[in-house]
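Action item from last week, closing it out:
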Amino acid sequence: MTPDRPAPPDESADESATGEFSKLIDEQLELAAAKLPALAPTVVHPSPVDHDERLTAHANFEDVLLGKAQPTPEMLEELAALAAAPELSEDELARQALADGGADQDPTTAE
């Protein structure tokens, strides 16, 4: 050891601190595990394969198209409004594309 070099760290102190920390973690894990309810090994939990698919609470167009849900009156109204909407010209579509900055909100890189 020279005056310009510090003494090497005491590795035994680090190891004992690490060992104490590991012991503390293990004790906390055991306490947490003791609070968990035990599962009966004889109880068989049903597999999703054994059941029919449940209909989603809020159906979307994909669910309706796949036959998993019935369309709501609001969906039918929206589809009717879309069908009745006038078609946009190529000029209008180009104008909208240039005006929209897209996901990056940068109008110089139109979507």
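Closing note: The mean pLDDT is 77.
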